[in-house]
Model the fold of this input.
Amino acid sequence: MNTTDPKELHVSVDVGCYSHYVAVGLANGDYLGNFEISHNKQGFEKFFMQIEKYKKQSNGEVSVAMEGFNGHARPLDTMVQAKKYKLLNINNLKLARFKEVFPAPAKTDKIDSRKGLELFQLQQVIPAAKNVLQEVYTIPQDAKELKSLCRRRNRLVNERTRYLNSLHADLTSVSPGLVEITGKLKNVWFINFLVSSKRLSLLAKRSEKSLLNIAWVGKTKVKKILLWQKQAMFSEDEPFMSELIRQDVLRIKELGEIIALLDKRIYALTSQSKIGKRLLTIKGFGNSSCGSLTGEIGLIDRFEKESSLAIYLGMAPLDKISGNSKGIRKSKNVNSHAKTAMMHAVDKHRRYVEESKCYYEKKRAEGKKHNQALRSLGRHLVRVIFKMLKQDRDYEIVMVNKKGKS
Done:
C-alpha cells in the first residue's frame, strides 16, 4: 500500500564529474520539469533555488535521490541533508539489475534522471525495484572524521610498508648483516641510527660514545651495533646507494611520526564517540580497528538487522551452490575498509578471550582455514556488537557453569 504523500516532491539527480542533470516530479507521478547544474557554487545555488520554487507548487516534503552518494555527489549530498531534505542513495548494483528488467530506450543523462523518478513509484509495487533507493542517514561528525582519518592512516601505513620492503632489500644487498641487528626495520632506534650518518660505511666507524647520543639507542642497542661494526661489509654500490637509502629512511621516519599523531587523534575521537567507546570495551579490539569500524558504521540505525551489519562488515559470505559444487561468494555490499578492520580486531580478540579462542580452534579442527575460522568467530561477534550498539551497552563476558546457568 502506498502511504507516500501525493504532494511530496521527488528529485532525481544524475551525478556527473563536472555537472549534474536534475529531474523533478510529484509523488503522484506528475512530471514537473528538469534542469542541469554545474558542480560549483553557482550550480548548487541554482539547484536549491529551483527546488524551492517547485516545493512551493507541491506544498510537500522534499526527497532527493542521487546516484554516487559520497563520491562525485560531494558536497551536494551533505548540502541536501543540511537543508533537511530526505536524501536517498540509488544503489548502483540493484539499479543495474532493475535496468536489465526494465531497460530504457537509450542512455542519456536526461533519461537516467527520469529513471530515478520512476524508481520512487515502482519501488513500492515491483520487487525488482525494492531497496534500489536507500535512505541516507545523517552521520555524526565524529564518525565522519574517524572515517577520513582512519582511511588516511591505512594509506600511510601501506606506503610505509612499501618503503620498508624496499629498504630491507637495499640494506641486505648493500650491507649484509646490518638488518640482523634489529627485530623490525621500523624500530625508532634503528631508523635514528641509519640517518645519524650520511653514508652507511660511516656507521661502522661510529664510536660508542657517539652512538649513545643517538635518540633511543641505549647500551643494549650499542652492544649490538659494536658487534656488527667488527664484521661490517659493504658492496661497491654503497657510495651512491647510501643517499637513496637515506632518503627512504627519512620518509619512513616522517610517516611514522604522522601515523603516531593520527593515532592520538583517532583514539581521542573514538573514546568520545557513542559507537567507539562501546567497541573499545571489547577485549582485543585496538584503537585503529575501533576507530575504523566507528567511522565505517557511522550510525547503527542504518542497519535494521544484525545480518545486514554482518554482510556490511564482511563477516557473512553468501553460499554458492551449483550441482555438487559448494562454495561461497563475496557480497558486493561489503565495506572493504570495515572488513579489514574487523578481521584484525577479531584476530586479536581470540587471543584475549578463552571462549573465542576455543571456538576458533574448533573451526580450525573442522578443516576451516585461518580466515574462514576468523569470519565464523566474527559472525558471532557481530551479533554481540549489534546488541551492544542498539542497547548502548559495554562488552561483558558472561560465565556459564556446566549446567548451562550463568
